Every structure is written in structure tokens, then in C-alpha cells.
Amino acid sequence: MDWRSVKFDWNRARAFLVSAEEGSLSAAARALGMAQPTLGRQVRALEDELGVVLFERVGRGLTLTPSGLELVEHVRAMSEAAGRVSLTASGQSQSIEGTVCISATEVAAAYILPPIVTRLRRAEPGIAVEIVASNSISDLRRREADIAVRSVRPTDPDLIARKLADATACLYAAPGYIDRMGGLRTPEDFSKAEFIGFDDNEAYIAGLASMGLTITARNFPLLTGSHLVHWELVKNGAGVGVMAAQIGDTEPGVRRVAPWLEPFRYETWLVAHRELNTSRRVRLVFEWLAEALT
What we know:
Elements: H1 10-22, H2 25-32, H3 36-50, E1 55-58, E2 61-64, H4 66-91, E3 98-104, H5 106-123, E4 127-133, E5 147-150, E6 159-163, E7 167-173, H6 175-180, H7 187-190, E8 196-197, H8 202-210, E9 222-223, H9 227-235, E10 241-244, H10 245-248, E11 255-256, E12 264-266, E13 269-273, H11 280-293
Parallel strand pairs: 3-4, 3-5, 8-9
Antiparallel strand pairs: 1-2, 5-13, 6-13, 7-10, 7-11, 7-12
Helix pairs in contact: 1-2, 1-3, 1-4, 2-3
């Protein structure tokens, strides 16, 4: 390779990539934690070095030119390669001190992880823990987290996954709501009930149908993308909702409805990147979580 032909540095390429992904210089500057004028100078310097125009300015936003569109995928590949370098370097660290980032659903992050992490911190005070509460799947390759607790089996061959104990979820409602609905004793009673829904209820409705309940979109007068908000609505008597049994059964303000129904069953997986799992610190937290969650 003729190294003398490489005319630009990675910082400028990164400034270009983040600007393209964020859609504006101001958003890219926030994402990188730098001043907008500095970022703008890096992008312009890259354009000068390559001799091409990468962006068209449209109002306050940016649109890639044909040259920018052609280059952005190559720079994105560079970014992924840089991420792999960082992953490999992090994986070689044998220090027990440092930060480990754990990603989990809102419910797991709020109700399941706190006592586990508290015990971990007492046993290993040198380890700092960051918890990312998100119902979206974190991208471990891009370092959005070191370890993830998921309810779906990962398919990426670069991930290490350990299956934990299967979990169950049940339908719950506040006692006052159950009384107002006459007890919710039969499948027909549920067809008149109000359910707390999510952004996408198709899988939820299909699961209820498999349990013998005829529920339609009309049964969902309240929708939320947050599982924590969903649970608070249930506790406040707004309708019927679903929650992991280990959490719902310990909440004094609700009761299981239709105990004759089979619970929802779902898998739980603990996931880490293959290279990060060679880190002593991350491996320790991984094994700690595996034992506690099992």
C-alpha cells in the first residue's frame, strides 16, 4: 500500500460521518462533544484535502452530495473498524477497576438490576456501573453497552450469549378496576375490558388470542411506548396490563386477573461482545449477573 497516498486524517473523516448521520453540524457537534465551528472546520478541511464537496447546505441541515454519498459508506466501514480496534484493546485490559455499561429493558433496569448492582458494588467497589434503560436492542459492536440483558436470542456470531432461566408474565389490574368490571371472571368479560397498550399491539393481541381472549384494537384506549408508564397506569386503575410475574406478584397495589389463564412465557439472555468478554472486569460482571439472574 502506498501510505503517502492517504491524504486525510481520521478525526476529519469522523466529523464527516457524524455530520452525515446526524443531519446537521450542530447535532454532530453535540454528539461528539465539541464546538460547532471546530467541527465545521474539520469537515471543510476534509473537503479541501479530497478536492470534493461533501455536503449541500439546506437551511440549517445538511444533504450529502453525490460525492458524499459515494464516500460515506467507506468512512462508515472505517468507523466500524476503529470500533473493533477499541473493542480488542478494551478486551485485553485485566484491570478490575473501571466502568461496565449494562443495557436492559426499562422494567429490568428499574426493578431487577438495582438490588443486583448494589450487591455487586459492595463486593467490588472498584467497578463503576452504568445502566442504560431502553426497550431497544443496544448495539454492542458500537459500544452502546458492554453487557445486555435481552428477551430475544442474539444472532450476531460476534456476540457471546448465555441463556438464563425462562421467565413468565401475567395480566394484572388494580383491585378497584377489577371490581368495576365485575370481577373479570370469564373470557367474555375481557372483551369489554380496557387494556393498556404499547406502540405496536399486534403481538400482544395475538398472544391474548392464543389464550382464548378476543381482544381488538378497540380494547386499547391508552397506549404508551414506555413499559414503566404502562405499569403505573395499571397500578392506578386505568385498565389491564402485563408485567413480569416476579415483579407483578410482589406489587401490593395490583392483583393477577384471570389466574386460570396460562402465563406468557419468554426467554432471557445475557449478552456481551466476544472481545469484551475477555476483559477481566466485564467477565466478572457478566458472571455475577448470570448467577443473580438465574
